[in-house]
Amino acid sequence: MADQDSKVGHNYCLDVPPASQGFFLKGMDHTDWGMKNRLARIFNPKSGHTVMLAFDHGYIMGSTAGLERLDIVIPPLADDVDVLMGTRGALRAAVPPTCDKAVALRCSAGSSVLDEDMSHEVIGVNVEDAIRMNAACMAIQTFIGAPGQKSSIQNLCNTIDAGNRYGIPTLGVIAVGKEMERTAKYFLLATRMVAEFGAQIIKTYYCDEFEKITSACPVPIVIAGGKKVAENEALAMCFRAIQEGAAGVDMGRNIFQSENPRAMVKAVAKIVHENATDKEAYDLYLSLKLSPKNALQPRVKTKTK
């Protein structure tokens, strides 16, 4: 039995106030510990930002250029991102289970790009499989103003409810159909609606007056990279978004379709986590892209006679 009269003096630090239980992410102060723990894996607590690598394009596009061999393309890029965003099939096939990066699991499923109306999606992955996949968040495509808006919102709300039961955040991915304009008016409506439904993170596109969108949205917003553009243009968009209130970027084609994906992802991270300008990041990209060690695929030595 331990000595009840310990000779070691007690120091309760009565003059020191208790540590604040606040949280570093916008709108997340009152979530549970497990939810906060997963969010802290998605967003770097030091910078408050995140770099996500999206490679879930195949679920609607099939074999996307640059992603023909997931097992070759994705693992070399993982070191420089915070989050891997993919489908469960792609993750199981291409990402080794020893990888310690957070996973944004694509949980919605729907029609291919050949379908004129892609807004009628379903929940393709339930919360139990998200738990088995050790997902840090569940990503659900959300169409606002499209023919399938009602069912899309239902998918989102069902996923949010399931995630709340188990402490898993939901990433609401704002979809833009063929008839929708990529304007501040539309994104102000869509991001606010999805946040008020309860999504903990919003993914949307960058547009003019983006600072209004981030200001009006009560939860963190990450921007989608969108279609492939020149590297300096993609970095400029990334820089402007961060300066105007984005909590991170979720880039796909502008990384894996880059002339040098490893150099590009390092340049993106420089902006997101180190507050570099787009010019500084582009200079870094140019300096790294010529280095053999930043080549995506190892050079194959040919036999000489």
Number of helices: 12
Strand order of the largest sheet: 1-2-3-6-7-8-9-10
Largest sheet: 8 strands, parallel, barrel
Estimate the global geometry from the Cα principal axes: globular
* Class per helix and strand makeup: alpha/beta
Distance between the termini: 79 Å
CATH homologous superfamily descriptor of the domain at 43-225: Aldolase class I
Proportion of residues in extended strands: 5-15%
Low-confidence stretches: 298-305
CATH class of the domain at 43-225: Alpha Beta
Under CATH, the topology of the domain at 43-225 can be stated as: TIM Barrel
CATH architecture of the domain at 43-225: Alpha-Beta Barrel
Tell me the total number of β-strands: 10
Order of helices and strands: HEHHEHEEEHEHEHEHEHEHHH
Q: What is the residue-mean pLDDT, rounded to a whole number?
A: 89
List the defining traits of the structure above:
alpha/beta, 10 strands, two-stranded antiparallel sheet, disordered C terminus, 8-stranded parallel barrel, 305 residues, TIM Barrel
